[in-house]
User: Fold Putative Flp pilus-assembly TadG-like N-terminal domain-containing protein from Pseudoduganella dura.
Amino acid sequence: MFPTAMPAIRPNIRAFPQLARQRGQALIFGLFVLVAGLAGMFFMFNTGQLSAEKTKLVNTADAVAYSAAVMHARALNFDAYTNRAMIANEVTIAQMVSVSSWLEYVEQHSQRVAPLNCYPPYIYSVPGWLGLIEYFGVCSVLAYGDFVITPVREIVDPIAQAVVAGTEASKLALQAAQDAAFVAFLPARKKLMEQVADANYAGLGPVKVEPLLQDNYLLFDGGPIIKRYSGSERTRFKEVEVAAAYGDDFVEKRGWVEKTPDPLGLGCNEFVPMGTARHDSNTKLQNFDSWIADDKASLSAVQKKWDLSGWIPKLKCKTIRSYALGNGKQSAKKNGGDWYYSGVPSFYELSTAALGYKPNHSNQDKREVRLKFSIRLTRGSADLRTSSGTSLVKPTGQMAIFDGAEAKDVMAAVSSSEVFFERPIARTDGKTELASLFNPYWQAHLIGNSAAVKAAALALQNP
Assistant:
């Protein structure tokens, strides 16, 4: 037989009255734990939302500051590209007047070559008996070039004049583009910053781009970083365009000189005539409104002859033969020239103060031109995705005391950017390229906020 199951033993509360007094006390402790847990969860939620909002606002501020810096760099590079284009136009004008003047000289030279007896195989020509071997070759070619050169000149001259007129129109358009870009820059920059900020918060409520904490574009060492130069202030552009024009050897060095060889160093003597054939040329920019090209060629023979003009006869070098080989001249002027030329253009360049920045400047802060820019973005607390803003999670009752609040009811972020001048490839001569608006080497990046910017931001944020 199996034993009978033992009955359950229940405590007799009446027999133990102290147990009745402890019944339900754990519930009070549990309520405190529950409230603390809810508060912890609320804080975790709010902290996460605030961190996310702050991170997004900071990233948006960086995007706005960087976009503005890129716009600054592009504006400076635009001026550099248009300046270079206008310089190219100026060089073209210098080349056209040089070609026209040279063709006129060559045409006259080919027409005057007959007295020199340069027709091959006449070795007893003037250049031949003077020993001007190189010029004899040139003279021989020109002897048969008259029927070719004149038609060429009749074709080239109108084309050159049309090219000058075209470059003038292009130059005016480039100047107008620079002026328009300068006038429109600040409104366009403001619009760009707002567009970038709004794009980052599309559908999430408004974000405000506040007045700039730092703006070197408008205030760089006492004034705007760029300036329009006109009138007598165009010297810098004139120097650059002349240097560029003279980079073409034809404009600066199309002249030549050949003299009779003198291996014994006898110089001018009474036995052997000596000659000089020369082509003098120059193309110059006079003042600010005239490109003038001149070509003049001549040949002369000298020999020592007795000078009987004085009391005592003397042997002196005298010119025994002289030939004018041809002249040419062409000009492009604002007033009275063969072709119309409006003059050295007005242009945009760094301010006088900025151009004074040099790598060896005694003031370390003035060794590099750096355009700094700082912005402040704000979001109203009512627009934040937190318990105090647009979130559906709202504190009620006693929990409201744990709800946070932003200073002045806004969340703010500050970001700074910088535009700097740097060649992508170092110069071959090892020299440092100075910042200017003639080379498009302006770049942009983000930088840390300076102490002054932080102080200004705190002043705006503190209640």
Remarks:
- The chain has two domains: 53-69+203-227+349-460, 75-188+235-336.
- The first helix runs from residue 17 to 22.
- The longest strand covers residues 314-333.
- The radius of gyration is 43 Å.
